[in-house]
Amino acid sequence: MAKSITTKELARKVDDPNLAPFILDVRAPDQFARWQIEGKIRPETVNVPYWTAIEQDEDTRSLIPSERDVVVVCAKGDSSDLVVDVLGLSKMVNLDGGMDAWATTLVPHTMHDDGEEFMIQLDRIAKACLSYAIGERGAEMAVIDPAADLEAYLQVSEEMDAPITHVFDTHLHADHVSLAAELAQRTGATYHIAEGDAEGADMDYEPLRDGEVFEFGNVRLIVRSVATPGHTPGSTSLEVDGRFLLTGDAVFVTGIGRPDLGGETEPWARDLFHTIHDRLAALDHDLEVCPAHYTSRAESLDDGTLRRRLGDLLVNDPVVSIPDEMDFVSYVVEHLGTPPGEYSEIRRINMGWDKPTAEQVQELEVGRNECALTG
User: Fold this and answer.
1) Which CATH number does 4-102 carry?
2) Which pTM was predicted?
3) Where are the chain's structural domains?
4) Residues 247-293: tens digit of each pLDDT
5) Domain 105-359 classified CATH 3.40.190.10?
6) Cβ-count burial of 362 within 10 angstroms (0-12 exposed, 13-18 middle, 19+ buried)?
7) What does 238-297 look like in DSSP terms, one character per residue?
8) Which residues have a catalytic role annotated?
9) Residues 354 and 362: beta-carbon distance below 8 Å
10) What is the rounded CA–CA span in Å between residue 186 and residue 320?
11) DSSP assignment letter at 298
């Protein structure tokens, strides 16, 4: 068995230009075209299909810089393991678990920790998805927008000695399968989602209501408004301890959530305009916006987190700051591409209507999210 690197180790490296390795991706060209390894920088990458890499090993070696660390990638980590053995380069390692493992890797970044209260942002780097764990050590905690790997949230709970008592979805997700209902069932927690998104769902949930306050130790989580619609009718923002604003897909650190996933583009775009200019603009502009997605890891701060002061976003983002409703709606309509076809299937799963296998979920979730509209 060849030397290997874990997906979490690779995630750290591709966030640092001084550490980023060269990537040899040995998947089939069509798989490679759908998605690749990315981080704060896009690492130098070459795609040489598995059999070609082995049968034309000398040609393959000629493509690889001898002085660089090299990570070989395939779907599951088996074919790439063999390629590492065949090529025999000293600085070459195999990505353990391959792209299947990369797809579900959650990288935690601490946003706040004073020794008692904490807030952790978990980055699903392969899909540019963000989820959150907030609470107080020795008391309890909440999880917001969980995805990919239940064990990651259970590990935070164990490390913080804080049982998970509440799980939230800020909206009905379309680009990935939510683990919120499953995590709530596993832990005995209460699952919360706005009724505007979950009415008719085949799952147990408590509808989020305007102005609700949840306390986890001394941490107050305020449902600022059930009506921050636009990306979805029930999109909900959560304020944490007067410092953070978890905006789901309403607004990101750059741009907004696309308002066409329910087939009501112009009405939802108008809702989103009023969410920004009537609701979010009325909040404390020093709140730090913490979204559920991002466009690129290049948007992250030096500490690895993705966040942006609300006042800065409202004034300086080229889409969020559009002041006229008609101009805003026109811009949105003109810049939307066609949403991926699998998004409608994922929405059905998140409503509890369809029960896919793990393999079906994996196939539906391949590739980055396409929920963002940026300037």
Assistant:
1) 3.40.250.10
2) 0.93
3) 4-102, 105-359
4) 999 999 999 987 776 667 888 889 889 999 999 999 999 999 999 99
5) no
6) middle
7) EEETTTEEEEETSB-SSSEE-S-TTS-HHHHHHHHHHIIIIIGGGS-TTSEEEESB-S-G
8) 74
9) no
10) 38
11) G
